[in-house]
Amino acid sequence: MNITVLGSGTSQGVPVIGCSCTICSSSDERDKRFRSSVLIEIDGKNIVIDTGPDFRSQMLANHVKQVDAVLFTHEHKDHTAGLDDIRPFNFMQNEVIPVFASDRVAEALQREYAYIFAEKKYPGAPEIDLHIIENEAFNPFKSLKVIPIRVMHGQIPVFGFRIKDFTYITDAKTIDQIEIDKVKGTEILIINALRLESHHSHFSLDDALAFIDEIAPKKAYLTHISHVFGKHEEIEKMLPPGVFAAYDGLQINIPSK
Question: Considering the entire predicted model, what is its pTM?
């Protein structure tokens, strides 16, 4: 299994429009962060978690030529606004793309992308097959099991996802113990860490490190990083062994067992 971090930034991305702070002005490419998303390559299939507003640029930057399924964490625009750009994959693959989302997210997609779900579709509209998922394991493909991890983003439920020894969680602030137990045994964890200071709906660095300590993965990577957190090289100096700041384009390989 190979994981590509397509985006490691928060809802505004980094640099932030109009900001001239040292992070937004940084020349380090690792400080240029698209909205959070990952690509999972497994068993010849490509799965994307979230299609934010940078989805088109992320596909081009990483030379992605195949998408076999999309999983959505939640309905916020920084995670769904790029869904229309699934169209080239419809055309190239001559396939309808399966999309997996909770009923809450599905309702938002149907409202905000009404033309995708219209009875009489406009020619060229995206072709997706929407599957409603609940907080139980599902199979996007016959040979692959995905385990949802329900977390709370303030008052909004969000799904993280575990696939074999990899877990991806974004936009978490609180996680019930029963959900934490699903994550235990993960070898590679990607978890959100917005900034140093506490936040009402996101993990801070201390929150993320406490969660990582409880899970004890072989390696953990921080994502959904804001411009107030610091430069990539500064963040890395704050982290304990085995914990790293993710960056756009990072690739993580998990050997098959």
Answer: 0.97
